[in-house]
Amino acid sequence: MPGGAMKFRLKYVVEDTDRHGNVRLYYRRNGRKIRLRGPAGSPEFLADYKAAAKGPRPEKAASGNVGRVVPRSVKWLCVEYYKSAMFKELAPRTQKVRRSILERFCQHKNDGDKPFALLQPRHIRVRRDEMSDRPEAANGMVKALRQLFRFALRYDHHDDNPADKVEYLSGNAEGFHSWTLEEIEKFETKHPVGSQARLALALALYTGQRRADLVALGRQHVRDGWLVFTQHKGRNRKPVRMEIPIIPELQRIIDATGTGDMAFLKTAFGRPFTSNGFGNRFRKWCDEAKLPNCSVHGLRKAAAARLAELGCTEFEIMAITGHTTSKEVTRYTRAASQKTRAESALRRLTGEQTPDKSVPLSAAVVPGGTKPQPK
Question: Structural domain of residue 34, as residue ranges?
């Protein structure tokens, strides 16, 4: 080496090359991977290496006791729950969300140090009502506590579930905004066939799937003109296998769009989207089309509503959306079902035949999607 410098090699130091060809240095040990400043051997590198080798500093608990868990406390019950099969069989994202909710509950006024056997429904209601300005978050907390105490019952830690006696807040009865035909046409005008945005719209609208499934769908799921796959939600506990026909309009848009190797939808770098990344990207596409109230989940709702307008039964709609109970489908399609019944009643009253103006989610879709194409 120049200047007679001596070569050396430090343990646990690895090199990784990012997608731009830049070489980065990391300290990797026991599942930890810590970025080190370069170049190797520089004072900055050695300082980072020394700090990484010492390991992370233990975080201090709010009470000042590091890692303290009071036996038979709410926090103790949470720790036991995290180690159980009931928790481990949940999807990784569900685990992360539920753990976050329970940890926030424990940190609130040191509730985690209190005996879980003394937790009463009135205590949970007080905490729920403090979050009444965020009903979905309040309901998420109640749901997480219900699951925690179901674990306690199953594993004989307790003989009651106080959270089961606590009511959910009403929240937004309508849920996600369901796209109108005008909003779909506005999106299509901004994002023409051939764009990733238009492909995303078509996949969501003509399959009725959640975003976690939309980002995974690819040519490997195509079987004789059908999409055959297992839904992401509940795949480890109650898998739902789906078979959905690819209608001509969806096939036309797929054929006209540059797709990824293992997923129809791809990022600017040619890779599949993550579920969250796709949600963020679709939000931008909606904003570009000046549709601030629209979301990708609203297209799932719109697909179910269209099927209801066509007179499909709840079980037929469930065969497309993959819902295992009709409760959510009923909520999705309530307005559409009312409209269909009213129209049917008036036709009987007048003896007239009113043509259906909705866009069918079936093989009878006119070429061009929601907007008829000029001949």
Answer: 24-54
Q: Which two structure tokens, joined as six digits, stand for 26?
A: 């990391």
Please tell me the distance from the alpha carbon of residue 117 to that of residue 70, in angstroms, as a whole number: 13
Instruction: Kindly state whether residues 208 and 322 are assigned to the same domain.
Output: yes
The pTM of this model reads 0.61
Same domain, 160 and 307: no
Give CA–CA dist 113/232, Å, rounded. Answer: 36
Encode 49-61: b = buried (16+ Cβ within 10 Å), e = exposed.
beebeeeeeeeeb
Tokens 């729950």 correspond to: 81
Q: How far apart are CA 306 and CA 204, in angstroms?
A: 13
1 residue type, one letter: M
Are 125 and 189 contained in the same domain? no
Q: Dump the DSSP string for 241-275.
A: EEEEE--HHHHHHHHTS---SS-SS--TTS-PPPH
Answer for the pair 206, 303: CB distance below 8 angstroms, yes or no: yes
Q: How far apart are CA 315 and CA 324, in angstroms?
A: 9
Helix or strand run (H / E) with residue 23: strand 23-29
The two tokens of residue 147 are 């699951």
In this structure, the answer to whether residues 207 and 336 fall within a common structural domain is yes
For residue 257, give Cα distances in angstroms to 63, 182, 224, 265. Answer: 57, 24, 20, 9
Q: How far apart are CA 253 and CA 249, in angstroms?
A: 6
**Same domain? 160 vs 189:** no
Structure confidence by residue, pLDDT tens digits, 45-59: 888 888 888 876 544
Which of 56, 57, 58, 14 minimizes the C-alpha distance to 36?
A: 14
The average confidence (pLDDT) of the chain is 83
Rg (C-alpha) for the chain, rounded Å, is 27
Predicted pLDDT at 13: 85
Strands of the sheet with 32-36, listed across from one edge: 13-17, 23-29, 32-36
pLDDT over threshold 90, residue 130: yes
What CATH number is attached to the domain comprising 108? 1.10.150.130
Give the position of tokens 């180690």: 83
Task: Give which of 251, 271, 273 is closest to 261, Cα–Cα.
Answer: 271
C-alpha neighbours within 13 Å on the C-beta side of residue 188: 17
